[in-house]
Design goal:
By secondary structure, this protein is mainly α. Helix 1 runs antiparallel to helix 2 and helix 1 packs antiparallel against helix 3.
């Protein structure tokens, strides 16, 4: 899923840059909207890291 979102980001940025030369408004909208998948990927990474941290705390055997 992350790879798909990163690919979508790349496609939106390239399309946005090409459209920027043709139609400024559409190009800016596409270019700005390309950062939405980046935010989603970052959110997913943070959630995964929190989940890993919780698992580490549950499986903490330092007190033995």
């Amino acid at each position: 899923m992350r790879a798909g979102l990163i690919l979508l980001n790349l496609i939106l940025q390239i399309t946005g840059l090409v459209r920027l030369l043709i139609d400024v408004k559409t190009g800016i909208i596409l270019y700005i909207s390309s950062y939405v998948p980046v935010g989603i990927v970052l959110f997913m990474l943070v959630k995964d890291r929190q989940k890993e941290k919780e698992e580490e705390e549950r499986n903490d055997y330092r007190d033995y």
